[in-house]
């Protein structure tokens, strides 16, 4: 009897313990934290913060939380619905061998993937060195003087090349000439981008159309090199024609081909773009991969994206930092020319490491083998009666197959092979690093008729010449810097990768309390599936019936995100938050046009908005009108109302962030939405702060019409040092028809065209967010939100006597982040927020968000994943720094020689015989007393930003600089 009523000793139900692993705060901690804040329960705290009027009435409908093992098994079953055919499709996506040493030690290594964007230069030297290697690699291979640290994909990079040219050239024409044999997805994204800007895209689909177009009026030209069908054109005369008209010439080029081809920089190209996917990043159904952009020197100040440069630190030693940051959209806001923010840093690091590992000789060998195999393939096909369309090729040949086209493609599929059908009656075959002799034999078999004698590889092998025209063969050297010629043994490579990551501070060492960026746990079980072959080795343009696993992943994740946001429809195509904003505004614009209201083009944006908001509005051709914030950091409703009335006939949209970037839940958000709707506008709610909302309130329910999410913030995709991201665009019912389509990817008939190169964007990282939702369930997700809010309020309360929180609601509470006001310290001690940020490095912490959205403040967002112990350690460091500031205030240390101004302290500086400071070495080192944590040593002293911008240098540092 007794036995029956007692609980079993072992819990038989296999309940998810993941929630408790994801959320760092335990039940016992919670009571203590609540007492510090002054609330009785977590429920009471949340109710005192979230306006009752917006609180969710229905819980999210999600499957119940699964254990790690169960979720992995379920996802594996989904993944196995993807069929792994051997792909010869090409079109910008190729098979590649990710070197194991790079796969395990970069792509699968939290020291790399959990890093943040390198705004804090001193703790980001390792990843910035890798990015400088990337930039150098791109410059060398393209023959251009300057390259940025990655773009989102080749298609958006080409669209950015168009707008970069538009603002940089003298020619005032509105026409952009695009060669018809650029990759189709590139053409599509360019057309989407050009339309709202009033740029005419002139597509030249034949040699005659191309010649004619180049004789007309245009501001820039884009050609693909080699072309999508494999041809290698000599573009020299065309470049001259463009230059004679004061127009720019942009080239989309294959980096691997450029090891063998005359690089565009040597024939006068002004801008070169492309992808680095085949440098070791799996195809992953289209992403993430790093695209690149290089340009001529005088375009560099308006080049989009991030640029890593070399400067000096406080000891005069070379040190990296982000260069020319004033070009970035954060700073330029409505004057921005691009909205790119999160890019593709982790894939860029992989590509750069691939070049470091293989070196110039290795890359050339890979390229030569591909080119030779291609020539052998062509010869064999010729023997079988199929002639390659032209005789120039690097890795791709195209065959006119006429009426046989479909039957050949079908036979290929029946043999597990995907070929590309091009323009209805051509077949293109692209080879890559993974192609084997057996593959070539298989291809011949596909094309051979019954009983036809198959060609022999061996017979062609001897004396085979690549099909690269002699006048286009590269003679110049590349990748001559020692870094590309040193680490070719696996031991050497392993140590190089380790040495770089050891310089950096990422989430694997300590919390990164970045406001607005939500640096939460990126759980290992979420990360594991992304390199499963079933997800990694899918070509984005493989037939849809082979991508059933991705289709299901897409469908389920969208359904769950609809639950989380309250919206009716979602597209996962945008590959960063900025791209989601852009897609969302395109939807609003297309909606107004569909109602005959195409003249509505005013977009109201509060002054506190993130820089991408006005930048995105600009890109869809809207006129940005900035609205004021009141003294409490809220949108000034009176000003908003006045501007709505003033622009009523022309109002297209209002973009707000909720809760605001000031870290508060504005009480009147419902009224705000209603007001905008009254004037015929639509409400865009920037979803970057969804970590304060999931399970508690849904933008689609309280009045938002469109939002983007940042899956790389709220839904656990790691930041990767500045990308990859995923920025789903979410809309209410009547905007669903205006979500982006993708003709090349088979999503046809949409009013709005493609916004990314691949139909599912950065598809390969979607399993991360899927796993997160699946392991958390509705209750776990809501609990995460509540604990994130609890932790932010705990920090705000604990620090209030040291650093007051700038904005709070009437009861003194904040949302999931708080802005610490350091502005008064300037007068009392000469200390700026930046000094505190740098001093935190000595204590082993990454600084909070610096000076956004308010200058000279720090915005702290702890997230739900940190333990109370880690929160207390951070609070302890902040208080210790405040005590140091008090010493300065009391005059014990001079304002210009104290531990804050001299931070961070390198080990070298602390050990020097000469110690010209009024505080001890031990005090300078900081954090040594806390033996529980290994001391983090900054590899460089404070980096001089001004020097770096005055002496712009963005490639590998010559070894002599270190002497
Ligand atoms: C991060 C962020 C964005 C931009 O997202 P990306 O993925 O970096 O392009 C937009 N708005 C806010 C408030 C953000 O925090």
TrEMBL record:
Species of the source: Caenimonas koreensis DSM 17982
EC number: 1.4.4.2
Name of the protein in its database record: Glycine dehydrogenase (decarboxylating)
Domain Glycine dehydrogenase C-terminal, residue spans: 784-905
CDD domains: GDC-P (cd00613)
An annotated Gene Ontology molecular function: glycine dehydrogenase (decarboxylating) activity
Alphabetically ordered keywords of this record: Oxidoreductase, Pyridoxal phosphate
Matches recorded under InterPro entries: GcvP, GDC-P_C, GDC-P_N, GDC_P, PyrdxlP-dep_Trfase, PyrdxlP-dep_Trfase_major, PyrdxlP-dep_Trfase_small
UniProt domain Glycine cleavage system P-protein N-terminal: residue ranges: 21-447, 488-742
Catalytic activity: N(6)-[(R)-lipoyl]-L-lysyl-[glycine-cleavage complex H protein] + glycine + H(+) = N(6)-[(R)-S(8)-aminomethyldihydrolipoyl]-L-lysyl-[glycine-cleavage complex H protein] + CO2
N6-(pyridoxal phosphate)lysine PTM positions: 713
The keyword Zinc is assigned to this record: no
HAMAP family reported for this sequence: GcvP
Record's keyword annotation contains Oxidoreductase: yes
Cofactor: pyridoxal 5'-phosphate
């Amino acid at each position: 009897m007794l036995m029956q009523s007692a609980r079993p000793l072992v819990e038989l139900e296999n309940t998810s313990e993941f929630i408790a692993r994801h959320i760092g705060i335990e039940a016992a901690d919670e009571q203590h934290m609540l007492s510090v804040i002054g609330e009785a329960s977590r429920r009471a705290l949340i109710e005192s913060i979230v306006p009752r009027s917006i609180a969710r009435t229905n819980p999210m409908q999600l499957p119940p939380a699964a254990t790690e093992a169960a979720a992995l098994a379920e996802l594996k079953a989904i993944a196995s619905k993807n069929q792994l055919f051997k792909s010869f499709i090409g079109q910008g996506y190729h098979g590649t061998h990710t070197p194991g040493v790079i796969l395990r030690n970069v792509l699968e290594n939290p020291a790399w993937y959990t890093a943040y964007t390198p705004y804090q230069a001193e703790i980001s030297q390792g990843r910035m060195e890798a990015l400088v290697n990337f930039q150098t690699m791109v410059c060398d291979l393209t023959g251009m003087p300057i390259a940025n640290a990655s773009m989102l994909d080749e298609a958006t990079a080409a669209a950015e090349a168009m707008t970069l040219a538009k603002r940089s050239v003298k020619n005032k024409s509105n026409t952009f000439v695009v060669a018809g044999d650029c990759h189709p997805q590139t053409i599509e994204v360019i057309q989407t981008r050009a339309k709202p800007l009033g740029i005419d895209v002139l597509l030249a689909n034949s040699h005659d159309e191309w010649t004619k177009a180049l004789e007309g009026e245009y501001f820039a030209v884009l050609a693909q090199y080699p072309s999508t069908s494999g041809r290698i054109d000599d573009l020299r005369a065309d470049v001259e024609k463009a230059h004679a008209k004061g127009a720019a010439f942009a080239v989309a080029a294959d980096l691997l081909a450029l090891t063998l081809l005359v690089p565009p920089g040597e024939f006068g190209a002004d801008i070169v773009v492309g992808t680095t996917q085949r440098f070791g990043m799996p195809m992953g159904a289209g992403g993430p991969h790093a695209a690149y952009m290089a340009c001529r020197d005088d375009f560099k100040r308006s080049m989009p994206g991030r640029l890593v440069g070399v400067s000096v630190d406080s000891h005069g030693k070379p040190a990296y930092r982000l260069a020319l940051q004033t070009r970035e959209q954060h700073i330029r806001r409505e004057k921005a020319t691009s909205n790119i923010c999160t890019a593709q840093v982790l894939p860029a690091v992989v590509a750069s490491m691939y070049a470091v590992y293989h070196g110039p000789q290795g890359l050339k060998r890979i390229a030569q083998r591909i080119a030779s195999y291609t020539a052998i393939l062509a010869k064999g096909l010729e023997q079988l009666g199929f002639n390659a369309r032209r005789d120039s090729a690097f890795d791709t040949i195209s065959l006119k197959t006429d009426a046989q086209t479909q039957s050949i493609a079908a036979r290929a599929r029946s043999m597990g092979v995907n070929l590309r059908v091009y323009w209805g009656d051509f077949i293109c075959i692209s080879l890559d690093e993974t192609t084997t002799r057996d593959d070539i034999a298989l291809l011949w078999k596909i094309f051979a008729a019954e009983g036809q004698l198959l060609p022999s590889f061996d017979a062609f092998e001897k004396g085979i010449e690549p099909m690269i025209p002699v006048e286009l063969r590269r003679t110049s050297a590349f990748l001559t810097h020692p870094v590309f010629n040193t680490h070719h043994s696996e031991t050497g490579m392993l140590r190089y990768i380790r040495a770089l990551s050891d310089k950096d501070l990422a989430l694997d060492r300590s919390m990164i309390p970045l406001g607005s960026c939500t640096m939460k746990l990126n759980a290992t079980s979420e990360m594991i599936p992304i390199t499963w072959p079933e997800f990694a080795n899918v070509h984005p343009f493989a037939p849809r019936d082979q991508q059933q696993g991705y289709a299901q992943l897409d469908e389920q994740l969208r359904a769950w995100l609809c639950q989380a946001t309250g919206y009716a429809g979602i597209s996962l195509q945008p590959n960063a938050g900025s791209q989601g904003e852009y897609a969302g505004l395109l939807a609003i614009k297309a909606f107004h046009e569909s109602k005959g209201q195409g003249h509505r083009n005013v977009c109201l944006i509060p002054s506190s908005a993130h820089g991408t908001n006005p930048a995105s509005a600009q890109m869809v051709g809207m006129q940005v009108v900035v609205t004021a914030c009141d003294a409490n950091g809220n949108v000034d409703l009176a000003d908003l109302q006045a501007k709505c009335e003033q622009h009523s006939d022309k109002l297209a949209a209002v973009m707000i962030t909720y809760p605001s970037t000031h870290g508060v839940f504005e009480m009147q958000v419902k009224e705000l939405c209603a007001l905008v709707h009254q004037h015929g506008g639509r409400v865009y709610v920037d979803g970057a702060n969804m970590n304060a909302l999931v399970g508690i309130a849904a933008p689609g329910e309280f009045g938002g019409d469109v939002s983007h999410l940042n899956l790389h913030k709220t839904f656990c995709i790691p930041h990767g040092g500045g990308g990859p991201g995923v920025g789903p665009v979410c809309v209410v019912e009547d905007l669903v028809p205006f979500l982006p389509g993708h003709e090349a990817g088979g999503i046809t008939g949409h009013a709005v065209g493609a916004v990314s190169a691949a139909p599912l964007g950065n598809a390969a990282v979607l399993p991360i967010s899927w796993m997160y939702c699946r392991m958390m369930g509705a209750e776990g997700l809501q609990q995460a939100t509540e604990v994130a809010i609890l932790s932010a309020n705990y920090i705000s309360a604990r620090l209030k006597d040291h650093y007051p929180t700038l904005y709070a609601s009437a009861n003194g509470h904040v949302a999931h982040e708080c802005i610490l006001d350091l502005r008064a310290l300037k007068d009392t001690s000469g200390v700026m927020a930046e000094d505190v940020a740098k001093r935190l490095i000595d204590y082993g912490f990454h600084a909070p968000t610096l000076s956004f959205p308010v200058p000279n403040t720090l915005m702290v967002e702890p997230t739900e994943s940190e333990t109370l112990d880690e929160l207390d350690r951070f609070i302890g460091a902040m208080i210790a720094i405040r005590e140091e500031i008090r010493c300065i205030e009391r005059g014990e240390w001079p304002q210009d020689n104290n531990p804050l101004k001299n931070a961070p302290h390198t080990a070298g500086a602390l050990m020097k015989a000469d110690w010209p400071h009024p505080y001890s070495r031990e005090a300078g080192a900081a954090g040594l007393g806390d033996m529980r944590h290994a001391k983090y040593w900054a590899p460089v002293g404070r980096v001089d930003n001004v020097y770096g911008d005055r002496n712009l240098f963005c490639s590998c540092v010559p070894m002599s600089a270190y002497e």
